[in-house]
Design a protein that fits this description.
single chain; mainly alpha; three-stranded antiparallel sheet; 19 helices; globular
Amino acid sequence: MREGTTASARLRALDGVRGVAAFVVVVYHVSLIARPFASGGGRAEAVWTGVTESPLKLLFAGTEAVLVFFVLSGLVVALPLVRRTTSWAAFFASRLVRLYVPVWGALVLAVILIHLVPRRSGAVTTGEWIDEANASTVTVASFLREASLMPASYDIVNTLWSLRWELVFTALLPVAVGVSLLLRRSVGALALTGVAAAAATVVGRVIGVDALVYLPVFLLGTLVAVRLDDLLAWARRRPRPILWSVTGSGSALLLIASWLARPIAAPHTLVSEVLWGLAGLGALGLVLVAVCSAAAERVLSTRIPQWLGRVSFSLYLVHVPVLATIAYALGDRSWWIVGLIGVPASLLLAEIFFRLVERPSHTLARRTGRAVGRAADALRARRDRRVVTPTVTPTVTPAGATVVAPPGGRGPRPE
């Protein structure tokens, strides 16, 4: 296999990671619908506790899976800028189109579903996620507010909260890329910056500042982007199956460490919050294993993870409106039926949404980026011409004749 082909395969593995993470988020939201019926003691609560405080929690660690998205964004979004294969103007124009157009499509879909299946009070358990985080009515103001990606919380399409942080990171990307490029020559400096980013996430979790919790996780991915080629070259030199097995297992457990520690550290205690803050490092470790381990690359490049990766953004956007609609129609007490119907329906709708909304948005984003990039290049060229155009200066010879020094330096000519 040629070197370029190997690198391409390793990066395709990231699509598989994204797809698996998106599916974990879907299962997580099904678990939130089921959660009210696993409390109050008895066998159901014992099963819930046993599953959530074991490695099985990885199957539905939804919020933690979003951290994997953030590391991937920090890496993949920054990569063309680090490699200078696109301009900043083209990047921003393209990025905004790729974010906003699918978001608006998902909001329209959610509004249609809310009107088709009315969300009646009392149809689901009051005070739980399905009731509190999913709108029963929509106004023009609430639609426009969520369409802007500016609010801190969302209930028409609940998952948009993470897209808000994607937008904030996009605005801060010049700083993240600038810092990463400044440090790229020193692996030690990059590592220390990564440690500082992880520490900031821990501090943010402890003091309750979301910007500190999430934005440093994006930076971890950007730090990888500036040395990705070197990392891939090092990984290709020889297989290290034991290293990547240990790193992958440790990273997966670190991702859910706050859950595993619940028998000795209750939620919202200092120890629990510190462990949750370290989940960003777990997300980073899983991404590194995906690009460095040949075995992980083979698994993640198979058909199902790749398909999930292709539709992952669409799946992330459409699955909550689908699950909420079915839960309101059947009642959340039948949560297992909601899951049996809702998960396949979400996967099918994700494919349709990808074809009708997301893929066209990619085309529009590329065209917009190229147009804005050409316009920016034209403005830059015009400005440069104004700067370098020589000034024609008349002078007077001793004999009194006026001469002009023409452009090109060929000597004065008489006027």
